[in-house]
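From the shared-data thread, chain only:
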Amino acid sequence: MNLQKELTYRFLLIKGDSLGGSMRNYVGELAQMKLVRKLLSLLAIREIPYYVLSKQQKKNNGWTSGSYEADFTAASEIAAIQWSHDGKNRLLFFNTKIPLVNNNVDICLFDGDCLSFDSGRIVNHPQKALMFGELKGGIDPAGADEHWKTGNSALARIRSAFRPTPVCTSFIAAAIEAKMATEIWDQLSDSTLSFAANLTDDGQLTSYCAWTLSL
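Structure, as tokens:
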């Protein structure tokens, strides 16, 4: 074994599962960035004014007016997006702990403006919640079913926590296998699940973002 390979293997042994955790975080960030870019594209095409909140300015509630080209480039740094259309104010933000569920949720849509976001404290007003979603960016087919089981359990907890208040739930994944696709379709058919999409299918991702804008 040459020195380069030995150093690589020693590094992997030392890092252990922390390396896997870092990669999972990276994959999640990529998935969120793809979703954000698609949503920004629809907002621009429909000429809907919007505001963005960067991760660095989240605590200060420092929103800035949307600029498509700049925001598209900096999509990985966006913590939240706010828009107003047809008399409705909407706030979309990501990976936030929802007190009523006592867990982090990947996608959160609330009724509100930039001021009412209040540096994320809008989560303390569950009556403003409109939609929650699970986002799974892993593309390994072998892990797809496990991602669905995890996401499905999380969405079930959300629906239970918000009952009897109706709240939409959604599921987006980069890998969807036949068995889980059947279960997802069954939940869509009986309205248990509000919307689902394949992250790697541009048409489905566009439809998901268009649906989000319609809520």
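The chain has one domain: 27-214.
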